[in-house]
Amino acid sequence: MTYLAFHLVFLLPPLLILLATGFPRPPRLWAYLLMPLIALVYTTPWDNYLVWQGVWGYPEGRVLLRLGYVPLEEYLFFLLQPLLTGAFLHRVAGAPPPGAGGLARVVGGGMWLLLAALGVLLLALGGRYLYLGLTLAYFAPVFVLQWAFGGDLLWGWRRALLLGAGLPTLYLWFADAWAIREGIWWISPRYTLGLGAFGLPLEEMVFFLCTNLAVVQGLLLAWHPEALRRLR
């Protein structure tokens, strides 16, 4: 199977089903459509660096063409994943709850700050810590900002946060493990800890969890009226 066929099997069908049964309406629509573009811009440098370093790669014949170090289908993944996760989140989010106070902002922001520091430390160690360190150092600062700004809103909306990030992450873990077994892409053991489950490296599990958290938390904040008032 090619990388493009992977999209046709694993990403497009559930996305189309979700959109056909509950397309986001204004005022949630603008953030839903903007999120894939943000993900594309933010993730592209990180992904190109990983491929350049040889952390992961793609066998010949599995991709159409490469833009930089990354195949076209990977950029398409950056767009499709937020659309899929966002469409599912729209189904489970419900109405925005009130904020839960400032403690959640401090605790949540502090926790992610520690994980960002851990990522920098692992990045400095390099070698088998490189993939995990790059992921935490690149994505945890985003979560620091999200929770420092609206951690109380995210905590108040925690059911939607857990479901919206958790279930798409489980699904993408399954799809990723299948793709690795099929040889659509590979992960270098040189830059991973050797931990994981069902053939899926721990670092890949953290990657999909972080990317889905970034999408879900960003959308929940964009959809919350209190967050918009704070921006003003």
From TrEMBL:
GO cellular component: membrane
Record's keyword annotation contains Kinase: no
Keywords recorded for this protein, A-Z: Carotenoid biosynthesis, Isomerase, Membrane, Plasmid, Transmembrane, Transmembrane helix
Segments forming domain Lycopene cyclase: 2-89, 129-216
InterPro entries the record matches: Lycopene_cyclase_dom (IPR017825)
Top-rank lineage group of the source organism: Bacteria
Membrane topology of the entry: Multi-pass membrane protein
Pfam families linked: Lycopene_cyc
TM helices/strands, residue ranges: 6-23, 30-52, 72-90, 102-123, 129-149, 161-180, 205-223
GO aspect biological process, one term: carotenoid biosynthetic process
Annotated source species: Thermus thermophilus (strain ATCC 27634 / DSM 579 / HB8)
Pathway connected to this protein: Carotenoid biosynthesis
Subcellular location(s) of the protein: Membrane
Alphabetized GO MF terms: intramolecular lyase activity; lycopene beta cyclase activity
Protein name: Phytoene synthase-related protein
